[in-house]
Amino acid sequence: MSPSPTSSAEAYPIGTVLEILAETYPTHPMSEITGCDPYKVLIACLMSLRTRDDTTFPLAEKLFKVADTPEKMVRLSLEDVQRYIYPVGFYKTKAVTILEISRRLIDEFGGQVPDDIETLTTFKGVGRKTANLVVGLGFDKPAVCVDVHVHRICNRLGYIETKDPEETEWALRDKLDVKYWPIVNKVLVRHGQECCKPIGPRCLECPVQAYCQKIGVKPAAGKKLKGKAKTITAKQPATMAD
Ligand code: SF4
To answer: With a 6 A CB cut-off, is 209 part of the ligand 1 pocket?
Structure first.
């Protein structure tokens, strides 16, 4: 028997939702590209800001072949870094930032990436999203990495009611069992790219539609698609977004 949609008065089955999505999207491409090395996670995440993953990741792989540590990175010229990361969005500014961060890591931290969010956010260009990803993926410490996909889906599901990603991060830290923190970003980013898109979410194909209150989703998204709707179950590499 299908579960009935959750009312706001009931405890929300977020664990069930995340486990279904974790089966649907089992891998995290940021782990594959970076090997969960904190420096590579940091640089790849900076490159990915406002840039599609299919642009970012091949370029990050190319860059890491020549510079996978701060020491190697600062041996590159600004023009070299620009050339390696082109055409990620704002590549000129990001190249400056990558070199400045690498230099500061060497000068102040012995070439090691700090493992706490407060210190990381003192670095130029590093916001809470990036800092949380570095701490969570790079150091395997509790962190909640919230981007626009995580924010949008958590609100559509009806699990939380928040205005922006930062508020969502704090709401999840407060409400979500810490055992689910490592998978929130991994599964919701991919779900946001594949199914629960900002415009025209594919609700009829959604593996967690039975648990979703579809808050703020326009009725058109619930109409029958042409042909038979197929629930998304493909197990492809998960991706990371802004
Ligand atoms: S049912 Fe629709 S709104 Fe809800 S998570 Fe799935 S795609 Fe998103």
So the answer is: yes
| Residue 153 token pair | 């889906």
What is the reported pTM?
0.84
- Identify whether 37 is a catalytic site residue: no
CA–CA gap between residue 145 and residue 120 (Å, rounded): 14
Chain segment 218-235, per-residue pLDDT in tens: 875 444 444 445 666 644
**Structure tokens given for 90:** 């704002």
**Confidence at residue 123, expressed as pLDDT on a 0 to 100 scale:** 98
Tell me if 203 CB under 6 Å of ligand 1: yes
Tokens found for residue 15: 């664990």
CB atoms inside a 10 Å sphere around CB 191: 25
Same domain, yes or no: 42 and 121: yes
Give the CA distances from residue 42 to residues 14, 25, 106, in Å, rounded to whole numbers and listed in that order: 29, 23, 15
| Residue whose entry in the numeric block shows the structure tokens 């579809």 | 214
The residue to which tokens 């958590």 are assigned: 154
Name the active-site residue from 129, 175, 223, 228.
129
Boundaries of domain holding 210? 14-27+144-222
Q: How far is the CA of 186 from the centre of ligand 1 (A)?
A: 17
Catalytic residue status for 174? no
Amino acid code (one letter) for 71:
E
Looking at the structure of the chain, the number of domains it has is 2
Alpha helices in the chain (DSSP H): 14-24, 29-34, 38-48, 53-66, 70-73, 78-85, 91-109, 117-120, 128-133, 139, 148-157, 165-175, 181-194
Shared domain check, 160 and 71: no
